[in-house]
Amino acid sequence: MSSCRKRPCCICHLWFLPDNRVGSRQHTCGLPDCQQQRRRKMQAAWRARYPDYFSGRRIQARMVSDPPPSPPAQPGRFSPPTPSAGPTLSPPTSSRPPAPLRLRSPLNRLPWDIAQSEFGPQGADFIGIMAGLLLRETQSEIAAYRVEITAVTEQLRLPGAQSPIPPDAYLPGSGVEAESDATGISST
User: Fold this and answer.
1) Can the peptide bond before residue 164 be classed as cis, meaning omega within 30 degrees of 0?
2) 19 pLDDT exceeds 70?
3) Region for 23 from its dihedrals, namely left if φ exceeds 0, alpha if ψ lies in -120 to 50, beta otherwise
4) How far apart are CA 25 and CA 82, in angstroms?
5) Nearest CA among 129, 146, 159, 145 for reference residue 52
6) Is the pLDDT of residue 51 over 60?
């Protein structure tokens, strides 16, 4: 018999009997949709708690150098296999810098290769991420001030093709009378 009592699922609110191995730590029923939705909620909460984790990790991963190539094996000579040390967080040993960080528009139009040569790869990545953060925050602030006027737009009509003759030339008594000359030259 289960040592835990029934409890409601935090997603679908249906009562379920927790698995004995999980016990009181189980928050959702066994339905895959509920488990997937809770996983999404927990991941979103984690990302909200640690917003800079992935950007910092990406910068560090871009700075990781590839292990130097092993020397070619000479025939007739035994060389023991070298253990793979894995990636380290030391500066790259190669003279070629990593490719510039991919950024969204309009930041992708800036010369990031020049920034990389001036500030170094890590400095250019930091500037790019900081510029992206400022761009997102500015756009969200601007979006908060947008005013949507729906009542006035219904009253406006689309502009038609503009006539080369002013409309008052068609109205009698407007002071500008249409000439009846065929050549378009006035008699005065």
Assistant:
1) no
2) yes
3) left
4) 44
5) 129
6) yes
